Amino acid sequence: MLRIENLVKVYKDVRALDRLNLEVKPGQVYGFLGPNGAGKSTTILSLLGLVFPQEGRIELLGEEVFQNGRFDEGKLVKAKARIGYMPEHATLWEFLTPMQTLDVIGEAFGIPKTERGKRAKELLQLVNLWEVRDKKVGKFSKGMRQRLLLAQALINDPDLLILDEPMTGLDPKGIAEFKEIIREQRKAGKTVFFSSHILAHVEEVCDTVGVIVKGKLRVEGNLDNIKREFLRKAGYTIVLETNKPVDFSGTEWNVTPLGEAKYRIVAPKDVREEVHDFVASQGVKILAMQVKEPSLEEIFLKMVE
Ligand SMILES: Nc1ncnc2c1ncn2[C@@H]1O[C@H](COP(=O)(O)OP(=O)(O)OP(=O)(O)O)[C@@H](O)[C@H]1O
Ligand SMILES: [Mg+2]
To answer: Which residue's CA is the nearest one to ligand 1's atom 3?
Structure first.
C-alpha cells in the first residue's frame, strides 16, 4: 500500500529524514509516532510530492512514485487520486457551512453537482456533523473542525488516508470520537496512516505503530509486542514483601533489599510464579508482591530519549 525505502531529505543544514524505511500494508491502521521535529510531516509531505527528498524510493498504491532523486508525476497523480490527505495545519473557510465546504471541495475533485449533495450527506453523517450542516464553520469547536477536515479528506472515497496529527488539540472526548471514525474507516476496508507525537492517540486504534526519531524509524510493530520487547530489555520489576528474610543467593535475578524483609527483584521476564515457589521453599510467607510495569507513555519517552 505504502512503502518508503532509505528516504533522505535534507533542508539546508537539517537532515530531516535519515534513510527512513517504512511499510504500511493494506487494511492497516498505522500510527506514525515521534516527538516534535522527528520528521513526521516531512515524511508525509514527501509521500505526496509536496517536498522533494534527495534519495530513496517511495511506492504508493503499487506505483513507484519516487526513485533516483525524482518524482514520476504521472504515477504520482494516479496514486493521489486514491489518497485522502488531512494536513497538519489546515484552514477552513469560516463563512461557509459544512455542506458548502464539501460542495466546494467536491467540485474541485470533479464530482458532478447531483452526486455532491449525496456524498456530502454521507460524509457529514459519518463524522457526526449532519446536525450542524447549515451552521457556519467559524463557530465550530476544534473537534468539529478536525472532523470536517477528515470529511474533506474522504471526499474522493480514497483507499489510503494520510492524516498529519489529526488528534492534536482535541480533548479526550474529541479523541474518542475521532478514533471511532477511524475504526469505521478500517471496517470499510481503508488503510490509514496517521502521525502523532502523543502515544495515547495511537493506543486502542492502531494495529501497527512506527516510532520515528531524528528521521529514522526506531521501532515498528504491534504496540503489545513493542511493550513486551521493551520489558524484555528493561526487565520486569517485582517488589516483594515477606514475613521474614529470604536468602536469594543462587538465583539469577537481580535482587536489591529494600528493608528487613522487602526486596526489589529485576528479571528478564515475569517470574512471579518462580519467586513464589522459591520463597515457599524456604518456608517464608509472601505478604505482598507487586509488579511494576512501566506505562506505555514511559516506554515511549525512553525510546525517544
Ligand atoms: N521547510 C523547512 N526548512 C528547514 N527545515 C525544516 C523545514 N521543515 C522542517 N524542517 C526541519 O526538519 C525537521 C523535521 O521537521 P518535521 O516538521 O518533519 O517534524 P515533525 O515530526 O512533523 O514535527 P512536529 O511534531 O513538530 O509536527 C525539524 O528539525 C524541522 O525543523
Ligand atoms: Mg509535523
So the answer is: 11
Tens of pLDDT, residue by residue over 270-294, are 899 999 999 999 999 999 999 887 6
Which residue has the CA at smallest separation from atom 31 of ligand 1? 37
pTM metric for this prediction: 0.83
How many domains, in total, are found in the chain? Answer: 2
Nearest CA to ligand 1 atom 25: 36
Residue 262 grid cell: 522487602
Q: 52 CA distance to ligand 2 centroid (A)?
A: 16
The ligand 1 atom at the shortest distance from the C-alpha of residue 36 is 25
Of 221, 250, 274, the domain-final residue: 221
| Cβ density class 285-298: b for 16+ within 10 Å, e for less | eeeeeeeeeeebee
**250: number of CA atoms within 13 Å, CB side?**
5
Q: What is the rounded CA–CA span in Å between residue 237 and residue 268?
A: 9
